[in-house]
Amino acid sequence: MLFFDDIDVGYRSTVGTYTLNEREIVEFAATWDPQPFHIDKDAANVSIFGGLIASSLHLFAICTRLFFDHADQIQVMAMLGKEKIRIPNPARPGDVLTYRTECVRKNPSSSRTDRGVITLSDTLANQRNEPVLTQEVALLVARREA
User: Fold this and answer.
1) What is residue 65's three-state secondary structure?
2) pTM score of the predicted model
């Protein structure tokens, strides 16, 4: 388990990997983001994407799951926000996605000694190392007890 005190600016980790498949892309999007280029292969083929792609919501869900399963188990009390969200390339069926994170800011709470805020810069990239999602996430993290 990692607490606020254990994470320094510059901390880096490969959080995990995930392989997308067509069935999952369509099923997720059918419920949460039913754009034609997410759920209809024929419509996707004539879209600006030239084929089926995963919803950005699906990519966020993948990151959330991988972070939860991450071996480091950062002791998150709450997510405070996401900024600088970019989706520079589509994620497609068969893509093997790798989630990497780096701590870019760290601030102890001035009013509560049991916590602090870290900001992580995240990248979710495909097997060609092309980013499909980048973001900065501010997390409230527990400190070790004295």
Assistant:
1) helix
2) 0.94
Under DSSP, is residue 109 helix (H, G, I), strand (E, B) or coil?
coil
Alpha carbon distance 140, 119 (integer Å): 9
pLDDT of 29-77, one tens digit each? 999 999 999 999 999 999 999 999 999 999 999 999 999 999 999 999 9
Half-sphere exposure of 144 (CA within 13 A, CB side): 7
Report how far apart the first and last C-alpha atoms of the chain are (Å, whole number): 16
Q: What are the structure tokens assigned to 12, written together?
A: 């880096």
Q: Which DSSP symbol is given to 145?
A: P
What pLDDT is recorded for position 145? Answer: 75
Question: Can you tell me the distance from the alpha carbon of 27 to that of 108, in angstroms, rounded to the nearest whole number?
Answer: 41
pLDDT tens, residue by residue, 76-90: 999 999 999 999 999
What is the 8-class DSSP label of residue 2?
B
Query: Residue type at 107?
Result: N
- The tokens describing 120, both together, are 């992580």
Q: What angle do CA 15, 17, 19 make, to 5 degrees?
A: 155
| Full strand arrangement of the beta sheet holding 131-142 | 12-19, 96-108, 115-125, 131-142, 76-86
